[in-house]
Amino acid sequence: MAGTRNAMRAVRVFEFGGPEVLKLQSNVSIPVPNENEVLIKVHACGVNPVETYIRSGNYARKPALPYTPGSDVAGVIEGVGEHVTAFKKGDRVFSTGTVSGGYAEYALAAANRVFPLSDKLDFRQGAAIGIPYFTAYRALIQKGRAKAGESVLVHGASGGVGIATCQIARACGLKVLGTAGTVEGMDVVLRNGAHQAFNHREANYVDKIKEYTGMEGLDVIIEMLSNINLTTDLQLLSYGGRVMVVGCRGSIEINPRDTMSKESTITGVSLFLATEEEMQDCARAVLDGIEAGWLKPLVGSEYPLEKVVQAHEDIMHNSGARGKMVLLP
Ligand code: NAP
Questions:
Q1: What is the pLDDT of residues 131-150, one digit of tens each?
Q2: Measured from the CB, is residue 193 less than 6 Å from ligand 1?
Q3: Distance (Å) from CA 245 to ligand 1 centroid
């Protein structure tokens, strides 16, 4: 397994806390796949905001310590368990979950969380698929029931989930509006499926959205920062419109009456609650999109594994996203 090597570099967390608890170690044992698992040589790993929440210890799901974060890897199969027939050594793959953690040179994953990576995409793009695209599909299609001809506002469209949502929405025939916090971010949003972009740091951007949508309002809003935007979102909806709460970092006061006037719906979205069947449904849609050519993950900032502490700082505190953040081992 893994040639003659049996140790690798991997990020380990021994206690919950700030970004500084992420420790890069060079003598971590390379794991061995169980019967339904594969070992992946990691070429890139996506960094998701949820990994900072888990690391801080303030999240509902807490892994046993010590652990290695990271679920969305892209790389090459290094070895397979005895019951795995779908993959063989040398296959290019991406994952939507790992057993041993993706911030490492090698990662174990259950075979049903691993998918072939098309030659159309490089490894960094492969690492940008997992949580972002599966969440986008769950929010927009599985829970939001968005249909061709409807309108969607992707409120926070310039990051990992936002770009994925814009691409899927456009491919499904929706009218797509997206927001970003910078001119560069707006440009990226427009180049990834949005018909119109707005700047969520501009004082009057909500008026601009209202002006653009006119009396009709929006059928769906995919919300990345609901603790800031939920009250506004309710005012932007059409009759029967729905807000999908994808991101939330605190509380907000809303007037429930605002849901009555248009019989609006607010729905929470959690990828972790997707059933196996729903995950496979997401996977089919994503693989089809890659094959068809419209699904093209956009990589924003890249960090070597040594800079993992900085990556966790930046994903929470930097604004001006322009695609997905990835780590390169
Ligand atoms: P990300 O790549 O860090 O992107 C964050 C996005 O939020 C950027 O587009 C950013 O825009 C935008 N944003 C900043 N201020 C905003 C504001 N006032 N209004 C609207 N958007 C604003 O993160 P991500 O991976 O896309 O995830 C987005 C959120 O969804 C996170 O909170 C994450 O935890 C959550 N999430 C939830 C699920 C789930 O299952 N429910 C799954 C995945 C992610 P600028 O940088 O351009 O300002």
A1: 999 999 999 999 999 999 99
A2: no
A3: 11
